[in-house]
## 1
Amino acid sequence: MRPNLLQRFCKAALSLALLFIPLSLFAGPPAGVLDASHASVRAVIAVQNEVTADWIRKPEVLGTAVGVDANGTPVLTVYIDRDAANAGEVIRNLPRELRGTGVQVELTDKFRAMARPGSGVSHTATQTPPIQLGTSGGWSKDLANGYCCGGTLGSLVQIGGTQYILSNYHVFEADIVPGGNNTVATNGDPIIQPGLIDVNCNVNNAQTVGTLVKRSSLPGSNVDCSTAKVVSGMVRTDGAILEIGTISHLTTGAFINQAVKKSGRTTGLSRSSVSGLNATISVTYDNECAGGTAFAKTFTGQIVTNNRGSKFLNSGDSGSLMVEDVTTNPRSVGLLYAGSSVDAIANPIDEVLAFLGATMVGQ
Amino acid sequence: MVRDRLRCACYSLVVAVFLIGCRHNMAQSNSPPPKRDINAVLRDHDKELMAIPNVVGIYVGVLGDGKTPCLKVMLSRKSPATEQAIPRSIEGYDVVTKVTGDIRPLHTP
């Protein structure tokens, strides 16, 4: 007689159970680990299952999860849309506790799928020369203390008829102690594309596109800039920037709510708006890649741009040129160099150019 | 004739009292003196604000209406002592705090 479907299912389930019982004896979590079998976690999950369907109907509530409070005790975490107009009211109406389970609120941006709608342009790949700017790059020896560092080769400037790649002091020449790599940044050192971070820290996998011409802008001046003399044939002589194209040789002053864009190693082409002017900002610099503190610098007259969630500027974008957000030959506004997940900071480009005695290469 | 002169004098007196009253009222409704340029205000106060613990930056921004200039103070973190030390307004301009975290150079790693 052929076994019916139910019998076959039961046999399969029994086999699986027999397989997993011995495994679980050896692979179980150590005592005290807050996994799904922990009594406190189960209690939170029970509360979560009870309330989530109801709470999440509110547009301000983005989700719930089992979290821990400051004491490490499992609690029910409720994610609230930080941009929602009624967020405060929703938070006030949430219980602090449900049947002995703590309820805590976490304000967050809206959750989104992380797959970027690819523009198809890579800002980290090795380009066929002559390269466009707005790409990964840096000092060829920027490897120390178990890390390699880099930034963005942002734009092209001209000084006395010679073309130079413009980036930041802290991208090209901030290694000022022998420290973890037994060297310091020196004039003539290769400047490479992509930066070490994008070639597994192996300089042999990158190409030399310029040679370092130190400007020692920091800590003395009010700009964070440095240059590399272009190696003939390695950089587009029209100064084209990835996803921006050619720019104007003219500059323009920043103003509040000005629409701006930039092209950089990490966040590629991104757009934002100016939120503040004439900023006095304190920034702390390392003495080499992942090194100790070299100095804290207070800049004045800086441009502040909205950078919520680091979507406009993130680590690796230093050196990017901020331009006005127009389609054709935008004018330069600032040299981006610092920020947080809230604000991005740029030197006014005119101050950078005056320091270097340079003009932008453009139309 | 005398009566006309008397009437004229009375009118003059009324007008004079009225004018004096107006002048007095204008002096009483003393409008605030014009504000200094906000960039000059920032320049004169940035050092004292930057000296407050957890302050990492100050800039000229706008209020929620998108147009009224104000001074924005960037904080590495919120703390009651810091909030208490920062004035609510300076020379007639609102001072608004925002937690930005530390401002750091944006190279990798």
## 2
Amino acid sequence: MVLVSYISGGVIAIFLGPPLVTVPATSTCEIGVTPADPRFSSTDPVFLPLPGISTNDTHQLLLFSRASNKQWKMSQYTANDNNNFFNNSHSFNTVWNNYIVTDDRAQLLTWLSPLEPNLRHRDIRERRVSDVGEWMIQGEEFRRWCRLDGEGEGDKAVLFCSGNPGVGKTFIR
Amino acid sequence: MLTSHDDSSLVVDKLCDQARGQNTLVTCFYFDFAAGMEQSAISMLGSLLKQMVSRMETIPENIWRAFREQRQFISGGRPQLVDIVRMLQVITSSRPTFICIDALDECVGVQRVRVLDSLKAILEKSPTTRIFVTGRPHIQGEMGRRLAGRTASVSICAAKSDIIGYLRARLGEDEMPDAMDAMLEAEILEKIPENTSET
């Protein structure tokens, strides 16, 4: 079974592949819509394309829309070629609070780290002048370090670029 | 795996170019004295992990599992350092990874010890991980010891050609070009590089 987990405004689609699909039980993939997608404002189930999943066979799609905090409305559809979905056995209510519906990529990422360090990088990048420091990445030390073919079995896996304050280390890296 | 390209600089750019179209992950972290305890070992390694995970199409099952387990508790604890290192090991051992760390000397005391020990633990599990570190020279000995001699080093001093290139670019952006004449410009391009390259 493939869980297609993109959820917001209350829609989650759980995709049940054909019997012989060999996908790990709870692998996830994002469907190509964002929370700003107007389709999420609908209270009706929405059909969503399923990237990366072959549509050569018949699939079943279960679509969940949020009825309340703990209640999800489940609709079952069958898909044939070309991602056309047909309403199969429409709409029965179920309480769906013991499954993965709360999994959310964004929440997981925040859980891993609340830091958003990208702001400073942009600033440095904008202040950097092109070609300055090229000698560093053309140098033998650097080229040997970033080769990943296992030469020397990753012996010197760390490259330490040292310098006193103000020489421009930050701009180099 | 493509990596985002808007958050990087020279080395990171170079690595991203090299990684394009491949399965390689490029991540970076920037230490800063001013950030203080906000930049502990756990938040730094957590940030690396977050960058890696956010660039993966499929989040590894062990990370989902850890996340779900934690959610069962009302307090919803954050991952511990040991958990983060374990998750990093799983990812970095499955694909080539570059980790760039700026100003490691600005991470101090026990936090730096934890960072280095964690990096060592990651390298032990992952032969295709490369770590690029910048910092002041005084941490070189500590890095050598903590990373079990796996460190090569290169010393940065601003090359004269770099300084001239930088000055030219800045002079080109001069907002008051009338105040500049050829002689003053020539003097700037001569004197400043001379004085700075002595340091």
## 3
Amino acid sequence: MTASLTLVIVAAVLFGTGITVMLERSLTRVLIGFLLVGNGVNLFMFTMAGAPGLAPILGEGVDPDAISDPLPQAFILTAIVINLGLTAFMLALIYRSWWLAQLGERGDLIVDEDEMAEDAEETADLYRSSEEDDRAVQAVLEASDEDGGRR
Amino acid sequence: MTDALVPLMVLLPLLGAALALMLGRRQRAQMAVSTVVLAAVAAIAAVLLAQVDASGSGVAVAIGAWPPPFGIVLVVDRLSAIMIIISALMLLGVLVYAVGQGIADQHRETPVSIFHPTYLILSAGVFNAFIAGDLFNLYVGFEILLSASYVLLTLGGTGERIRAGVTYIIVSLVSSLFFLSAVALVYGATGTVNIAQLSVRLAELPLDVQLILHLLLLIAFGIKAAVFPLSFWLPDSYPTAPAPVTAVFAGLLTKVGVYAIIRTETVIFPESDLSTLFLVIGGLTLAVGILGALTQADIKRLLSFTLVSHIGYMIFGIGLASIVGLAATIYYVIHHISVQTTLFLTTGLIERFGGSTSITRLGGLRRASPMLAVLFFVPAMNLGGIPPFSGFLGKVGLFVAGADAAGGPPASETLGTSSPGPDWLIWTVIGIGAATSLVTLYALTRFWNLAFWRPKSELEGYRSRIIDSVQEAPAGATVVATRTTPVLMLAATAALVALTIALTVFAGPLFELSGRAAENLRDASVYVSIVFPGGVR
């Protein structure tokens, strides 16, 4: 069996980086690590097909020995689909986990219109005050620029 | 004719899941679909078991008429058929229980509309794993059941379940990556994933290459089966799920791992001999698991630890590498699936009735509900290994098989070319096994004494040395006690308790059946001849 060295190296790098990222505390990074290792495994499986050949479609005048091995490709396709589904689920889980961390389970019950109006007001206040802050900062900056210009 | 029935065992639950999803708003129709599908699978498995038991070999079906080893092949032999029957019966019993619970309290933690489809997909994955004739299909079966289990475990998305679910999901993802890498390596080494063909081709590889592939597969299966160093995730994640979900997970999911290990040892790697490793791991799993159980105040966590511990019995049985050992293992698997599931269901009832699952907060349950007391006492004694229950018979079977193996078994009794481990090791593990059985009994009777026999009036300010050192579950959720226990939940639990008693009453025929199933696994050639009647190239 001959295998492409490049693919082996890429797979190894994906494994290494993926496992490193997976060891982090943040769930999003764990997911990214899982995706990297998952792709590493897929590439690894691809190298198991041996030397690349023609597209694996049998027809007239196609030498069966010249085509590449279709089975690992079928495996990889299946694995990609499974990974896609799991990624979607993990993202939902991470979002839910973030939601619970930010708002707690009480967060599910916020439907109170007064509270929402209050929230909106608070946000508007925040914007206003931050705008004022921005203006003040800008004024200071401009003043210092003018100072610099005079010197 | 019966060939057509084999794919139905996977197809029916999948189609049923689709149908149940479409009927999302009509609960009664959903229940009808799930019940009919699971009953049908149990019936099909019974027919197939009768057939393969009579013919003495098995049925192999090539999907899409692509001949093996090119196509996907589904194989049913005695072991597969037995596993599917017992799983289908358990799934059915738990489903009835879950329906009873869902009807009784329509609260937001159990959104029933997705429960049924997910549950059926989980069943499809379990059945697919049991009849998979190639390694990649086994992987797909595992993924199907795992994906469904992620959803079931985090049902309702409460904080505690999300926290527990994250551990479970990440551990499972890693084990799947191990499995997939192992499949890739096996394919690279042999050019096939067909299990029957693998057993021939892997044997031709150098022994060290075999060992690497063998261990890689065992790690993947070991995480699923929760054997000792790989079992840390289980007691943390299972207890937080709803009672019926925990029951199914505890009963079935770990046993799918055990089943895969049995197949690995008997068919895929009959030449590569790891008996000693199995004995050591089995002994450690038994000891570490049960010591964990001792310190738990929460009955759900206590049962999760005994679950880990008792996996050790099965690993021990596999490690004996003899027909008798394997027969006892298969009987023990049947016993353990049913008893562990039943106990978790009873725990669900206790939680509803007593408002807690902790021995420090429960009391006077015997007086409050004699029916519940019986439903807990019988499976608890069974798990603890009190004669004449199946737990006792299974353990005795394993110990006798161990003693036989230690005495140097006749050549006709061993599996393939394997040899059992050293005698002193087998005797040690038998000793650990007996001690584990006693400690299990202690942990369960302690719960019984405090929760059922202690009068409710003594609960306030109760002090005793036996609960000095126990630990409460982290963030133990308080459940509102509901004095009404739905008839359907009680009936389902009672039916499963009756089933565990039936396993005792019909222990003779069942042991013989397990013996015949083990006989089929004597060497890989039986399995190979099912898939390739004309011999494999």
